[in-house]
Amino acid sequence: MVNQNLTATEIGFTHEDFAALLDKYDYHFSPGDIVPGTVFSIEPRGALIDIGAKTAAYIPIQEMSINRVDSPEEVLQSNETREFFILTDENEDGQLTLSIRRIEYMRAWERVRQLQAEDATVRSGVFATNRGGALVRIEGLRGFIPGSHISTRKPKEELVGEELPLKFLEVDEERNRLVLSHRRALVERKMNRLEVGEVVIGTVRGIKPYGAFIDIGGVSGLLHISEISHEHIDTPHSVFNVNDEVKVMIIDLDAERGRISLSTKQLEPEPGDMIKNRDLVYDKAEEMAAKYREQLLAKQQGITSVAVDALVEEEIPAAIEEEIPAAIEEEIPAAIEE
Fold it and tell me: Is the pTM above the cut of 0.90?
C-alpha cells in the first residue's frame, strides 16, 4: 500500500526546485539576436510571438516590414513560424520587442553591396523628388539620385512614377547612404553601342572654361578644350555656342567613370581648320576618322608585336615603346562630375 503522507523532503522535488529548473533551462535573449518564433495571437497593431521565453514577445506593426504595412495580416499568419530580430530587452513586464524589419534591412544592405560589387544596373521607380534630386527604393532601401545624375530633359517633378535604370555610386550602411546614378546607367548602355574612332553628331548643351558638353543620343560627352583644335584656343566659347550641332569623334569610352571623351582636333585635315573652316572639317570627318582608326590599330598591333618580341629578346629599344596618346591630354577638373 502506498504511503500518502510523504513529506516534501521524502519526495525530493519542491515547487522551488521546479522554478529553479525553469530558470536554469530558460533561454537567455539579447537585443540583436535572431531567433525562431511562432505567431500565436494577432492584434490590431501588432502580434504576440512565442520564442520560448517565459513571456510572449511582441512585434509592433511598424517593425513587421521594411515597407509600409497597414495591417499585421499583410505579413503574419496565426501559427506561422519564422525568424525574428530581438529589438529591445525585456520591459517591466518581462516582455521582449521583436522586429522583422531589421532582418530585411540587414539583408537588403547585403544585397545592394553585392549588386555594387557586380557593377549591376538596377531599375526602380521614382516615388518622390526634392530640390536635390529624386528618391527611389532599391531592395526596400531608400536611395537618392542627385540631380546632376538624372539624364532627362523632363522636370524632376514629372519623374514621379517613372522607372529608371540606375548604377550605384555609393553604398554605405553605416552612414545610411545609398546614392545612385541614372546618367551612368544611360552612358553605359550608350557605350555598348559606341566605338572609339566613331564619328557622331551631337548638340552643344553646355560650355565650360575647360570644354564643351555634347549631347549624343541622350548622353553627354566632353569635348575638352585640348581636343577642339591643333591650334591654341583661349576658350571654347570662341568656337561654339550652346545648341550648335557638331560632328565629333569618340576618342575614349570610360564605362567605370561614366565618361565619353570626344575630339574635333583629330578630324582636322589641317591644324586650325576647326577655327578657320569648320565646314571642311565636318565634310572630311569620316575620312579623317578612318585614318585615325588605322593609326590606332597600327599602334595597337605594334604594341602586340613588341610584347611577342619581348619573349625572345631581353631588351627592347625604347623607340618602339611608343605609347598610344591619352584620350584626354590634360587632367579634367572634377567639376565635370556635375
Answer: no
